[in-house]
Amino acid sequence: MSDSGIARKVDRLGRVVLPVEIRRSLGIEVGDLIDVSIDGQRVVMRKVARGCTFCDSPDQLREFADRLICEACVTRLSEGRPIT
Hints:
This protein has 2 domains: 48 residues, Pemi-like Protein 1, Chain: D (Ribbon); 36 residues, no CATH class. It is elongated, with a radius of gyration of 18 Å. Helix content is 18%, strand content 24%. The strands form 2 sheets. It has a two-stranded antiparallel ribbon. By secondary structure, the chain is α+β, with helices and mostly antiparallel strands. It contains 2 helices and 4 strands, in the order αββββα. A hairpin with a 2-residue loop joins β1 and β2. It holds the Pfam family MazE_antitoxin. One of its GO terms (molecular function) is DNA binding.
């Protein structure tokens, strides 16, 4: 891993603002999920790939009750077919 040369302070609530350059380069948008983990002495953050709640497909997603569902699963559900 390389250093970006950009330093940020941690506030009293433990928050850190990600610089816009980093958000843009990783395609991080408002509302995206970020996984935070530890690797030795490093804090590692990565964008969580979002996919359908049922099949994990990242294609043609709709939001329903704070869940993402792809068009194919919506069709299966509306037809009463099981989701495999």
